[in-house]
Amino acid sequence: MSTPVVFDPMTLPSDDNVNAYTFCVELKGSQWFLQKGKMIAYYGQIDFNGIGHGRFERLIRTSFHSPLHASDWVVAEGSGKMLLADRAFDVNSFDLEDGNLTIRAGNLLAYQPTLALKQSIVPGFLTLIGTGKFVAASNGPVVFMEPPLRVDPQALVGWADCPSPCHHYDHGYMKGVMGGLRSLTGIGGTSGEEHQFEFVGAGTVLLQSTELLMPEQATGAVPHEPGVPGGGPGGGGQHGSTPRMPGQLGDLQRRFGL
Amino acid sequence: MPFREINAKMVEAVVGPGQKMYSQRGAMLAYRGDVSFTPNVQGGQGGLGSMIGRRLAGEATPLMTVEGNGLVMFGHGGHHIQVINLAGDTLCVEADRLLAFDGTLQQGTLFMGSQGGVMGMVRGQMTGQGLFTTTLKGHGAVAVMAHGGVVELPITPGRPVHVDPQAYVAHHGDVTNKLSTALGLRDMVGRGSGEAFQLELSGNGAVYVQASEEKL
Description:
- Chain B: It comes from Streptomyces atroolivaceus.
- Chain B: Pfam families: AIM24.
- The complex is a heterodimer of chains A (258) and B (216).
- Helix content of chain A is 9%, strand content 42%.
- By secondary structure, chain A is mainly beta.
- In chain A, a hairpin with a 2-residue loop joins β1 and β2.
């Protein structure tokens, strides 16, 4: 923490963190997928090509399965060292071994093409399947927790091998006369914690230590098909409306045009 | 129940039966076990009287009561967290900096004008802290939020500590504070050092200072 460390191409780490906020990827004729704008510097000969480039037809067929947000990703190819960072958020690499991990779309920076990127059924999340390394950003260091666990929606970075991410609503304090009054009028407020994501079963849940979200990255719209969650009105069977949170004014709100 | 610091921006607390804890609304990150979060209309302890007092003082932050049996993790807004253990002394802190605190601590509001009279009021206006501050007294732990890291500076008799009002987070112990000015001619013509106002804390205790001049 005293004098600044000067790096050159030889001393830069290979596929490791330079500091908490910067990650260095070494390319030796290999390829990496990265989200646009996350590269801050590089040494050597590296080409950045948008996805949709004809040459990558095969690569994309095997390891990129979100055709609708292809415009957010580029392929880095060549040899050299490349530094990745994202708005001073903490950056970490994770290794997957024949596993699967689902991550918030805005938090994923880059991944090796040995992994396959797929859009999760949960809107706004991406799933990585296979073996390889990927780099993700989080606000504050990532904390790993084992289920059973309930997590604030904003604090969730992702999960691995968890069979059951689902919503959980606390209705305990809505009981009784006061509770009824509260849920009807919204007076008295909500604790802000009556809605969580619940995880049970074997696996790992990744938390970021704050509730400050990375800006939501467009993950591409899912096709408007019956049975596809988030697939537009009628698609998810929710009749196009979000579920009403406890403490909201309810239908009164709409009636008074609030 | 003490807080365990998981990293600079996250703390963990164990809640047991019969124990109670207060936390800022929306500050829960995750929990395990059977824990309930109830919005607290009074904004803390005491009855209607203390609620009105807090409202008038502008020290009413939305708090919630955390009860049950389990493990809770707290964090908020990407702010750094400092855990302060109190052993019978009083902590003065702005209410919106409170992340979570033990239910056994006694909560109150303090009129800052009572320390330093008119100058105390001027200080409140200058520092943006207002005229009132929240006090917590007793034995227990408090998790306080700050922008950037926090350093603890001890205050001993005869050796007062001067703090930039914007970087001041909290203080505990038997401490009096006053606003000291170093206003000179240069400030009048706009050539000041930008450090014309300082908070002077003297007595016996400690002050917590954040590494940033940004308010929460």
